[in-house]
C-alpha cells in the first residue's frame, strides 16, 4: 500500500510539473509575440513621427514665406496710409511738390 501512495504522489507531481512546464512555454510564446508586436508598433510610430515632423517643417517653411510676404504688403499699405495722412496735414516730405495716389493729386503749398 505504501508503494501505491508514493506512486500516486509521484504521478501527481509529474502532472503538476508537466502542466507548469506547458504554462511556462505558453507564457514565453505569448510574451515573445507581445514583444514582437510592441517592436513593430514602435517602428511604425517612429516612421509616423518622422513623416509628421517632415510635413510640419515643410508647412512651416511655406507659412513663413506667406507670412513674410503678407507682412511686407501690410507694411507697404501702412506706409502709404501714413504718407497720405502726413501729406493731407501738410507735414509730409517737402522734397516733392506733388504726390500722386491713384487718380488724386495732392499739392503742397510752401
UniProtKB/TrEMBL annotation:
Bias type Polar residues, positions: 55-68
Superkingdom field: Eukaryota
Name listed for the protein in its UniProt record: Late embryogenesis abundant protein
Residues covered by region (Disordered): 1-68, 87-110
Segments of skewed composition (Basic and acidic residues): 7-51, 97-110
Organism the protein comes from: Quillaja saponaria
Amino acid at each position: 500500500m505504501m508503494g501505491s501512495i508514493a506512486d500516486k504522489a509521484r504521478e501527481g507531481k509529474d502532472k503538476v510539473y508537466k502542466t507548469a512546464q506547458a504554462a511556462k512555454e505558453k507564457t514565453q510564446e505569448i510574451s515573445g509575440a507581445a514583444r514582437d508586436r510592441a517592436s513593430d508598433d514602435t517602428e511604425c510610430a517612429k516612421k509616423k513621427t518622422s513623416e509628421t515632423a517632415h510635413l510640419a517643417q515643410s508647412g512651416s517653411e511655406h507659412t513663413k514665406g506667406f507670412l513674410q510676404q503678407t507682412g511686407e504688403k501690410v507694411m507697404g499699405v501702412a506706409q502709404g496710409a501714413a504718407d497720405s495722412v502726413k501729406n493731407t496735414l501738410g507735414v509730409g516730405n517737402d522734397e516733392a511738390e506733388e504726390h500722386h495716389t491713384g487718380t488724386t493729386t495732392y499739392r503742397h503749398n510752401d
